[in-house]
Amino acid sequence: MNQPKKPTLTSLVRAISAAALISSLTFTSYVGAAEKLEKESLKLGFIKLTDMAPLAVAFEKGFFDDEGLSVQLEAQANWKVLLDRVVSGELDGAHMLAPLPLGAAIGYGTKADIVSAFNMTLNGDAITVSNDVWKQMKPQIPLEGGKPVHPIKADTLKPVIEKYKAAGKPFNMGMTFPVGTHNLKLRYWLAAGGINPGLYETGDTSGQKGADVLLSVTPPPQMPATMDSGTIAGYCVGEPWNQQAVFKGIGVPVISDYEMMKNSAEKIFGVTKAFAEKNPKTHIAIVKALIRASLWLDAEGNKNRNEAVEMLSQKQYVGADADVLANSMNGTFEYEKGDKRPLPDFNVFARYNGSYPYYSDAIWFLTQMRRWGMVSEAKPDSWYMDIAKQVYKPDVFMAAAKALVAEGKAKASDFPADGDSGIKPPSADFIDGISYDATKPNDYLKQFAIGLK
């Protein structure tokens, strides 16, 4: 058996010198990386919803680590607490409702300067009603092959609400936050069916003036239990809290937001303007990691979704059963128990330039905020674009995207072309067939029978 040779003094010196050089290079690289980012250790917040997935994936797959970021993810109690903690600096950034920073910009509720360079998801919401309400809606819904024809419009709910009124009972529904997607989408669906969801007035934050349906705030994870107790007759929320109602046998989702308004922005990632200005390189690094996570989530026909579902089912993230999460994440959606249908784009993260922060999405939310009185006075068309540009930062997104392309971690075709206007073409992909042109917000508002102009 050959014995290993004893190292000579010369070889030892060489080895020590080489080790010192490697150590020096490693230290230099580390210092260089530290100099590149203004802030490395971050605490980011989220609400327990499926569409927080890009944050979980960026953490679990090491995409934050690749950018030199040490990230702590922390679930928040509700959207108000989350916003307040971002504004105070307790959180460096967070998963947010897409209209939330727009409301903050105009001073509705909390006044704050929040910016977003990343759209976390398209679609992902649904409207669910209790079993009793569903039973009363069904006679108005046409059937095909013994199953309800979708999409289901709110005019099928109208006779139910009239029965409540005749009995002197309020018809209550839940949403998650006044300046939120769930509130605005629920209002849109109701109004499209001739049901008035009520107006907000200065000094009155109930939003119930002239309402046929009384909408109130309920945190997402509490939605099913609140409906089951009879406090609300239905709600609009993101997943998994609609499918949870099906699994528990307490309610029926009647329409997804994809069927209501195809490929609408749902959540964004937001930071304060002060954070973005103080930490521009860190901001780009966060967006890079989130873009990679979104691409991973939508890669090759959603091949990674099962792995994502297992991640999200963990207590520290969404904490719902994997089966419940998979119901929507894997491209299907269950309405009435046993009525599972294909809905491949229920959750979109990167497809259709889903993570790009389009000004036209911001403008749509602002039109609905004007429609329901959160914006108390009519504004010129230019105001809508000014507020959109104040909040949405596609330039930061594109800086992150170009860096990923240069590093070989993404393709140029994954992103909008250079010089994109940030305005999507006019579309009538809405439940009421009304066409939306982001360049003419006031003309858009004039088309609605219910709401302010």
Commentary on this structure:
The chain is an alpha/beta fold and 453 residues long. 42% of the residues lie in helices and 18% in strands. The protein is built from 19 helices and 17 strands. A hairpin with a 2-residue loop joins strand 9 (199-201) and strand 10 (204-209). The model is unreliable at 1-34 (pLDDT under 50).
Q: Could you describe the largest sheet, including whether it forms a barrel?
A: 6 strands, mixed
Using the CA coordinates, give the radius of gyration: 24 Å
**Low-confidence blocks of residues:** 1-34
Spatial strand arrangement across the major sheet: 2-1-3-14-4-17
Mean pLDDT: 92
Key structural traits:
globular, 19 helices, 42% helix, five-stranded mixed beta sheet, single chain, six-stranded mixed beta sheet, alpha/beta, 453 residues
Write the layout of secondary structure elements.
Layout: H1 9-36, E1 41-46, H2 53-60, H3 63-66, E2 70-75, H4 79-88, E3 93-97, H5 100-106, E4 114-123, E5 125-130, H6 131-137, E6 143-144, E7 147-148, H7 158-166, E8 172-175, H8 181-192, E9 199-201, E10 204-209, E11 214-217, H9 223-228, E12 234-238, H10 243-248, E13 251-256, H11 257-260, E14 265-272, H12 273-278, H13 280-302, H14 305-312, H15 322-329, E15 332-334, E16 340-342, E17 347-348, H16 359-371, H17 381-391, H18 394-406, H19 441-445
Parallel strand pairs: 1-2, 1-3, 8-11, 8-12
Antiparallel strand pairs: 3-14, 4-14, 4-17, 5-12, 5-13, 6-7, 9-10, 15-16
In short:
By secondary structure, the chain is α/β, with parallel strands linked by helices. It is built from 19 helices and 17 strands.
